[in-house]
Design goal:
The structure holds two protein chains of two kinds. By secondary structure, chain A is an alpha+beta fold. Helices cover 47% and strands 15% of the residues of chain A. Chain A has four domains: 145 residues, Immunoglobulin-like (Sandwich), CATH 2.60.40; 196 residues, no CATH class; 71 residues, no CATH class; 114 residues, 3-Layer(aba) Sandwich (Glutaredoxin). The chains are: A alpha+beta, B alpha/beta.
Chain lengths: 601, 177
């Protein structure tokens, strides 16, 4: 669905592409840097077409000052005759320059590169000098083994000829991990995505595709050879892969607007609806396949061609990718958003194509086995299908969770758990001498039932905490650990003010919502840790409660490129975000303490 | 799959796409020019240092046809249009037009330049705060040159990004005199 959505966006884009638009400076002059040797730093500016930068306006510096950079040998630029400045040298296109780097004294594991630059657009406007920063990790400076971590963002330093407002940099939504994935070069990236696809094949997302594929293979009956089975499933997988590739291209060209769209209630509800429909098919309410009219039309029109059946199978692959798309959408979000920021359609397309091939590997195996590997129908199989149906419903609840009040959210989970238990025959007596798997299922069912009932009782007794639904029943006798004292901020101006008021302390900004399980986990298991507490005491702790999902909350989330909570963002003592240290998801106390150490130093 | 379910599925998809398209349209058509009255009020409420180190409130020129030009010495296109503004200030000053130059620059650079080229209208020094101000009043990309024309009632008539050609400036000012 995300795919179709992306394609739709692409379409609308071309329709409305008439008016030229100025790029944000960080898009016009895309900045990155990395270590290429122990004593050389490569700085890269990808300058958008129609934009240029002045050679003599570059300034580079490093923090700590023990690292010095030599920027005296910048490559010659092209000459531009300027009415007022005379002949000036400018750069266009993809500019890389290598800066020799020397370290005085002790090697440092990481340092901050400050780059000041200034450029203009051909249409006759100029951007103010901007200062950009990159965190360079420099793990093996002395040994010569290097790794580089780069995250471009704008910085504002008091007194520097840079932008004065802190939240100027366009938020980067990717986690550094994903970013690092993208640094390995084209093929490494494509292979990583193939692996990612293989992992996705282990999720229930591929499951709805198996009945479709079996619908293709079964009519061939006994005549199905291994080769033909493989060829048919390959056609199917290719159809799927090309559809994903188009989505990747769209994401690459559209940039970050996907992230904004993905926070829209209608889009989220639409995704959830598709999950529910998929789940319904898992529960056997209907068979997931193409409408029979369309299927026979395709068969008729394509059978005249040689190998025509392949074409129709291919089309089925395309359509199934569209149907099952939302299922893989959630894990893909980060990657797609990053591709968006890369602005590279070819890269995005290839990456997603490889990912779909990875996802298709089990389907290819089913095909090559000439159907022998197709899951056999039977009571065992039905239970597995129902399990996946439950998982899909769970995903549906998760997707719409930002829109739901905590009560509804918890009730939905309670209902899901209880119905799941009933499907697992938790309430039916086991027949004497029942097979082992029935006993296992019953056990799981009973656990699910108890969890559901506990949630239900909890929510009805006033608890809004998914992790401790019965906490309210303990009475006043159970003093909880002293909660971390967060200062609440609810909009951007408040946040900026709070950061300004941090008085040289690092700032932690926690995105929180009542329905956010990870947030509760962090509160219950991580923030309570003494070591974490000690480090937190040295910081200014801010929290945004986005439970109500007001416009200013959305603006804040967008500002940081976040989909929703959980998300913890750090700012250094100067009030600039420390990129690459974001905590998205649960971190146990020891890991979180290590993250805090990085912030504090 | 039974027919009603097919219909339901297809219907759901159709609604979803339609919604997505609409939302995207809404999203794209964002960035409308800011409210002209409120923006004008914001400009007239602003206060910046003059080249003489005296704070100057833009409100003192309320009631005139105001042309507020954001510029900098490092900005070549800005230098291109400033002579035009000097000429226009001469030509239309008596008829109630007031140019204001807001330099996104250091006073040490803006001052000498203004003197050398003979700027005949007030130059205020905005520094980089001036750039934030520019963003607030409609210069979403934070680029220079950027020019606002405000009518006698304090309403913003136009915001212009890039060099303002003499013909265009004239056609903008004439109806406001």
């Amino acid at each position: 669905m995300r795919l179709i959505f992306a394609l739709l966006l692409l379409l609308s884009c071309t329709v409305r592409a008439g008016e030229p638009e100025l790029l944000e400076p960080e898009k016009a002059f895309r900045f990155s840097a990395r270590m290429i040797a122990a004593d050389r730093l490569e700085v890269r500016y990808e300058i958008a077409p129609g934009y240029y930068m002045y050679r003599d306006k570059f300034r580079f510096g490093a923090e700590p000052a023990s690292i010095s950079l030599d920027a005296s040998q910048l490559p010659p630029g092209t000459i531009k005759k300027d009415e007022f400045f005379g002949e000036v040298q400018i750069y266009r296109g993809d500019m890389r320059f290598v800066l020799p780097l020397t370290v005085a004294g002790e090697p440092v594991p990481r340092f901050t590169l400050n780059a000041v630059s200034q450029g203009c657009a051909d249409i006759g406007v100029c951007y103010p000098p901007q200062e950009q920063k990159a965190e360079i990790r420099h793990t093996g400076l002395s040994s010569g083994a290097l790794s580089a971590g780069v995250s471009p963002f704008l910085q504002s330093a008091p007194g520097a000829p840079a932008s004065a407002a802190a939240p100027r940099g366009k938020p980067q939504s990717e986690d550094t991990l994903i970013a690092e994935l993208f640094k390995g070069g084209y093929w490494a990236l494509v292979m990583s995505f193939f692996g990612f696809g293989l992992l996705l094949a282990l999720t229930p997302c591929v499951f709805p595709m198996i009945p479709i594929l079996s619908g293709i293979l079964v009519p061939h009956g006994e005549h199905l050879t291994h080769a033909r089975g493989f060829a048919l499933s390959l056609a199917y997988v290719l159809g799927m892969a090309i559809t994903y590739a188009l989505a990747g291209i769209a994401a690459g060209l559209l940039g970050t607007l996907l992230s904004a769209a993905l926070q829209n209630p209608w889009v989220l509800s639409g995704f959830a609806a598709v999950f529910v429909l998929l789940a319904a098919s898992m529960f056997g309410f209907y068979e997931l396949q193409l409408p029979s009219a369309l299927q026979s039309r395709l068969a008729v029109t394509t059978s005249k061609l040689h190998g025509g059946h392949f074409a129709s199978v291919f089309v089925m692959g395309v359509l199934s990718a569209l149907i099952v798309g939302p299922c893989v959408a959630a894990p893909l979000a980060g990657a797609l958003l990053y591709i968006g920021q890369s602005g590279d359609g070819v890269l995005g397309g290839s990456a997603l194509f490889a990912m779909a091939l990875g996802m298709g590997v089990p389907l290819l195996a089913v095909g090559a086995s000439a159907g022998a590997l197709l899951p056999k129908a039977g009571p065992w199989m039905e239970t597995v299908k129902r399990f996946f149906g439950m998982v899909l419903l769970g995903v549906a609840i998760y997707v719409v969770s930002p829109l739901l009040p905590a009560v509804v959210y918890m009730l939905a989970w309670a209902a899901l758990l209880i119905v799941f238990a009933v499907y697992l025959h938790a309430l039916d007596p086991l027949p004497h001498g029942a097979p082992g798997y029935r006993k296992l299922f019953k056990g799981v069912g009973v656990i699910s039932l108890l969890a559901g009932v506990a949630l239900l009782i909890g929510v009805l007794s006033g608890s809004r905490d998914l992790l401790q639904p019965l906490a309210g029943l303990r009475g006043a006798a159970a003093p909880a650990a002293q909660p971390v004292l967060f200062r609440r901020v609810s909009d951007l101006p408040q946040l900026e003010e709070a950061i300004r008021g941090a008085a040289g302390k690092p700032v932690l900004l926690d995105f929180y919502a009542d329905w956010c399980v990870t947030c509760k986990e962090m509160e219950a298991f991580t923030f309570t840790d003494a070591g974490v507490r000690k480090r937190l005491d040295e910081m200014v702790k801010l929290q945004v409660d986005v439970t109500a999902n007001l416009d200013e909350h959305k603006a804040l989330l967008r500002r940081f490129g976040l989909f929703g909570p959980p998300g913890i963002v750090f700012f250094d003592r100067q009030g600039n975000e420390i990129k690459g240290l974001r905590v998205i998801g649960f971190q146990p106390a020891d890991k979180f303490a290590a993250t805090l150490d990085l912030v504090l130093n | 799959m039974t027919r009603p379910l097919q219909a339901l599925l297809i219907g759901a998809l159709a609604v979803l796409f339609a919604g997505a398209g609409y939302l995207f349209y809404e999203w794209r058509s964002g960035g409308r020019p800011p409210n002209p009255v409120a923006t004008g009020q914001m400009v007239l409420a602003a206060k910046f240092m003059g080249l003489d180190n005296q704070p100057q409130a833009l409100g003192q020129w309320r009631g005139k046809v105001l042309v507020v030009n954001f510029w900098a010495t490092w900005c070549a296109p800005c230098r291109e249009e400033i002579p035009v503004f000097i000429k226009f200030q001469d030509q239309y000053g008596a008829r109630g037009v007031q140019f204001i130059g807001l330099a996104i620059d250091q006073k040490e650079r803006a001052g000498p330049y203004a003197r050398d080229i003979g700027i005949n209208y007030p130059v205020l020094v905005g520094g980089l705060e001036g750039m934030d101000f520019a963003r607030q009043v409609g210069n979403s990309r934070g680029v220079l040159p950027f020019t606002l024309v405000i009518d006698r009632s304090g309403k913003v008539v136009t915001t212009e990004i890039g060099v303002l050609k003499p013909e265009k400036l004239e056609s903008l000012l004439k109806p406001l005199l």
